[in-house]
Amino acid sequence: MKRTLILGGLSAGLLASAVVAAPAQAAGDVASDSLANTNLAAQQVAAFWYGEAKANLIGATPYDVETQVVGKHVSTGGPTADTKPGVVPAIGDEKKTTSVSKNVNLPKTTGKVFFIGADGQPHWCTGTSLQSAYKNLVATAGHCVYDTTSNKATLDKWVFIPGYYQGKTPWGIYVGKQAFTHYDFDVYEDGDRNYAFVNVYNGVLPVAGGTDVDWVSKPYPTKALAEKAKAELEAKKETGYSKLEIIEYIDHWKIVPVGSPESKKVEVSHWQFKNVAGQNDDPKTTNFVSGLGVNETFISQAEFRSPPGTQNDGDSYWLNNGKTFVYSKQINGSWKYIKRTFWINYDLDYKVKGIVLSIGLKDVGRLGDNVGGQGLAYNQKVGQSVYVFGYPSGKHPDGNHAFTGHTLKWTYGKTFAAKASDIKAEEIIGVKSSFTGEGSLGSSWLSQYKSARRLGYLNGVTIGVADTDGNKRYDTSVSPYFDGETYGVYKVAAALWSGKIV
């Protein structure tokens, strides 16, 4: 979807260096939705991604909803703080520390969030682990959690995998339990509030003995009912089913008249036919019963005498398939040669077929204990320097494919004020960046990043990219401005416990 972006600059500012009093936050500004709200549900979500040799993980593609924005710079406008600036320290940085590093060490906190998109296919964005009371919080773009395409509440089978690389899950899979965003994004898709905070369960890794089991449902009398059952299975966030399809099921115990809805003629052997019809052993005769019949085709004498698939050269015989009878008889004084098959009109039902994912899982602990968690900064002056960490993929408008999405990348620059009125975004910020949009949605913007400790303050998440000079190369990434209302949403999510799933 094309979006228009109007970019502008403001004076630089410095990040506040201490935690300040929390800004006022109305409870009604926070929207919350369940992702996988039971242990069983979470186990089945994890099994979905681990199952089939991780085919869904490996085959996932970068999410590209609303990634490209088009516009130009302006000289005025931009976000303003709604209260005093403040920060929440990163995990391990609660006490002030100092360190120096000449290299940019990539944060362990960043990874990919995976989910099923509105198109029913697996996709991914970027996400990052964040400081919270129970070390169980992930931050990403709002439209990497909330389904803005089909207008369902949330995207299905949502998980976070820090350090993901080509099927590898070094610190496990963390299944989303509860998602939080601003009310204005949940209801109005307000671009200024395009961020989300997700509580995740403890991480899990697969253990030996997991299997993928073929599964078939009970029969449904109509295809419509089977399609409904399939849709219900696919819609359940806790479903452990994969590759669902509708298959025909013939009820051999129920014969129905020809023309009955949901029925099918099935070719049968003479033995099956005569047992139902109650006729004698002579296949040349037929006691016609409703729902049974024969098909007859005239053949040539040469075909009759040199029958394929049999050694019999008499005046009647069976082909080797056991279902086709060939015979001759006089009709109006001349010999005719006939090929006969038998059919029964059975009741036709339908079943849902697929794979049940049954994977053994073991608990590997809390997200923050395993990879750490970034701090949070809000109400900061525009113009500070930030590192942006993400998994960009896809092509630039000129066709250049600079990023694969396989490995974590970074870019660095100073933030500036921006506007995007057509996506209801009046207070967003930008940073110069060559990241493409696909895959980099949700990338973490970290201010005061300490490379030696791999920690800083989350001060934005990528919600789109722009080519501002018209040279068909993306040069800018944009993020909502984190203000006191952002902190209010974060504060609610950061206080909640999630626990284990196994």
The multimeric state of the shown protein is single chain
**Shape verdict:** elongated
Main sheet summary? 7 strands, antiparallel
What Rg do the Cα atoms give? Answer: 32 Å
N-to-C CA distance: 41 Å
The overall average pLDDT, rounded, is 83
Q: DSSP strand (E) fraction?
A: 35-45%
Number of strands: 29
Ranges with pLDDT <50 over ≥5 residues?
1-27, 70-76, 97-101
Topology:
Layout: E1 3-8, E2 30-34, H1 39-59, E3 61-62, E4 68-74, E5 86-88, E6 110-116, E7 122-130, E8 137-141, E9 156-162, E10 174-182, H2 183-188, E11 195-200, E12 203-206, E13 211-216, H3 223-235, E14 241-255, E15 263-268, H4 270-277, E16 292-299, H5 301-305, E17 316-318, E18 324-331, E19 334-358, E20 361-365, H6 367-371, E21 375-378, E22 385-390, E23 409-414, E24 416-420, E25 425-432, E26 444-450, E27 455-461, E28 464-466, E29 476-480, H7 484-494
Parallel strand pairs: 1-4, 3-7, 4-28, 21-27
Antiparallel strand pairs: 1-24, 2-10, 5-21, 6-7, 6-9, 7-8, 8-11, 9-10, 10-11, 12-20, 13-19, 14-19, 15-19, 16-19, 17-18, 18-19, 22-23, 22-26, 24-25, 25-29, 26-27, 28-29
Which labels suit this protein?
mainly beta; seven-stranded antiparallel beta sheet; 7 helices; elongated; disordered N terminus
